[in-house]
Amino acid sequence: MTDSKTTPRRRSLLKGAAVAAGALSVPMVSQAQTTTWRFQSTWPAKDIFHEFAQDFAKKVNDMAGNRLKIDVLPAGAVVPAFQLLDAVAKGTLDGGHGVIAYWYGKNQAVALWGSGPAFGMDANMVLAWHNYGGGKELLDEIYKSLNMDVVSKLYGPMPTQPLGWFKKPVAKVEDLKGLKFRTVGLAVDVFTEMGVAVNPLPGGEIVPALDRGLLDAAEFNNASSDRVLGFPDVAKNCMLQSFHQSSEQFEVLFNKTKYDALPAELKSIIDYATQAASADMSWKAADRYAKDYAEMQSKQGVKFYKTPDAILRAQLAAWDKVTQKKAAENPMFKKVMDSMRAFAQRSGRWKNDTDIDFKMAWNHYFAQKKS
Q: Nearest-5° angle of CA 53, CA 59, CA 65?
């Protein structure tokens, strides 16, 4: 017969066993100290592009829990916008958010990811080429040749950008000649070929330059960014549709040494956060850009015009001249062009043959019927 009385020592042993059993039933939680990375965007704090950068960071932070935190600063907080790549490569910043056309001065081939007609591909198709058609490997090769210790991830397909903001609408190619105009990347060469005097200013400097008469016209990107930057305050005419930057996307940069030191699961979180941010950015843009587009017309007196086809054809002709010359001078430029062209010919044909004309359906429901 068992003694009904339990000795103090036995009670202590039973209590310890119970605690141990409970501990085994609780999932193990990482107690590692939070790693905080300092990022900078190439955008003013009030720009929706900076908001997109913060959206990306939030997705990483939420999924990484207490293991990794990305803090995003606006352009100029640490370095000027156009110095971001160097700052990330050197470790002055842990990462950044921008567009690769800004590194055009280091190797002009990088601008092919954002400038020009991309052989008829929109921004989402360019991202398809980048991820599945060899573009990513080519970009890695370019950065390695520049001794840039970075990891680059592209995401966020941008809608076709406007030709730009003008004091009065342009109706023909000749109207562009001699204008003092702001753009960036290979678009600088395209507009120069068309007789335009180009100044590649950063985003935050464009409207003040227009206001002071240092520029006659300028482009930036989209209805929301253009509105918050103040374009409607200095110009009332915006020409929509252009081939100069019809397929651009964002770039998230990481210092390679710090990125490579991350455990595999955190690298996966960054990968999936990039993909999620790409979709989310597209959805948010469709909502916000449309609202600002409508309000600039109804509240600020802005008039939007379609860029004449003659100007669009002139852009294509200028693009061909510019890129043929650069391909002859720069083997990497030609290598990127050839890769992009091969993908566009195959996948573009499929897309063009498959897609419906959505404008037909929109007009059916919303266009004003002629009496």
A: 130
The tens digit of pLDDT for each residue in 269-312 reads 999 999 999 999 999 999 999 999 999 999 999 999 999 999 99
pTM over 0.85: yes
Cα-Cα end-to-end distance for the chain: 105
Amino acid at 170: V
The whole-angstrom separation of Cα 69 and Cα 57 is: 8
pLDDT of residue 369: 63
> What does the H/E/C string look like for 152-210?
EEEEEECCCCCCEEECCCCCCHHHHCCCEEECCCCHHHHHHHCCCEECCCCHHHHHHHH
Using CB atoms within 10 Å of the CB of residue 177, give its burial: 0 to 12 exposed, 13 to 18 middle, 19+ buried: exposed
Order of strands across the sheet with 237-240?
Answer: 197-198, 180-182, 217-218, 164-166, 237-240, 303-306
Computed on alpha carbons and rounded to an integer, the radius of gyration of the chain in Å comes to 26
Cα–Cα distance for residue pair 206/194, rounded to 1 Å: 21
With the CA atoms of 194, 197, 202 and 203 taken in that order, what torsion angle do they form, in degrees rounded to the nearest 10?
Answer: -70
Contact 129, 350 (CB under 8 A): no
CB 212 within 8 A of CB 201: no
Judge contact between 251 and 97, C-beta under 8 A. yes
CB proximity list for 34: less than 8 A, separation 6 or greater = 66, 67, 68, 69
pLDDT value of position 184: 87
DSSP category for residue 116: B
Specify the DSSP class assigned to residue 15: H
Burial class (CB in 10 A: 0-12, 13-18, 19+), 328: exposed
